[in-house]
UniProtKB/TrEMBL annotation:
Keyword Cytoplasm: yes
Species of provenance: Winogradskya humida
Name of the gene this protein is made from: smpB_1
Family: Belongs to the SmpB family.
Protein known as: SsrA-binding protein
Key words, A-Z: Cytoplasm, RNA-binding
Source taxon at top rank: Bacteria
NCBIfam families the UniProt entry points to: PRK05422.1 (NF003843), smpB (TIGR00086)
HAMAP family listed in its UniProt record: SmpB (MF_00023)
Length: 160
């Protein structure tokens, strides 16, 4: 069997980009059981409620839901168990230093396979206020209208 190459997306947390202002991103590995990897390959995962936090000098991922593997036996995993994140000590120290600041959270943005290894993209993020979210939506809508108008203009349809 040939080895997997490249990056294959499994799940993304679109809500996180709306709720938080992303300051910096990190790539981390995950400690997984065999049935978890099989469920990930099938795409049975949800990272909407997931978050990362420090526990005894390590970073752990909480509330990541990986459904039980359908063909698993008594060796199946618990769907919402706590999973250890694999990062270098220097990166962990840097992240923990930033997490001490007020209002900073560590949220997963996406889950993917990179050359066959399960990885999670983590973001140091600051929560947005309600008016910031509205500004972001208004800016995106304005940009969309501008691009539509430009497209119509270039096609020769001034109004439509």
């Amino acid at each position: 069997m040939a080895k997997e190459t490249g990056r294959k997306a499994i799940a993304s947390n679109k809500k996180a980009r709306h709720e938080y202002e992303v300051l910096r991103t990190f790539e981390a590995g995950l400690v997984l059981a065999g049935t978890e990897v099989k469920s990930l390959r099938a795409g049975y995962v949800s990272i909407v409620d997931a978050f990362a936090a420090e526990h005894e000098g390590e970073l752990l991922l909480y509330n990541l839901h990986i459904a039980e593997y359908g063909f698993g036996s008594w060796t199946n995993h618990a769907p919402r168990r706590t999973r250890k994140l694999l990062l270098h000590k220097v990166e962990i120290a840097r992240i923990l230093d930033k997490l001490k600041e007020n209002g900073i959270a560590l949220v997963p943005l996406s889950l993917y396979f990179n050359d066959g290894w399960a990885k999670v993209e983590l973001a140091l993020a600051r929560g947005k206020k309600e008016y910031d979210k509205r500004q972001t939506l208004a800016k995106r809508d304005a940009e969309r209208e501008i691009s539509r108008a430009m497209g119509r203009h270039l096609k020769g349809h001034p109004r439509g």
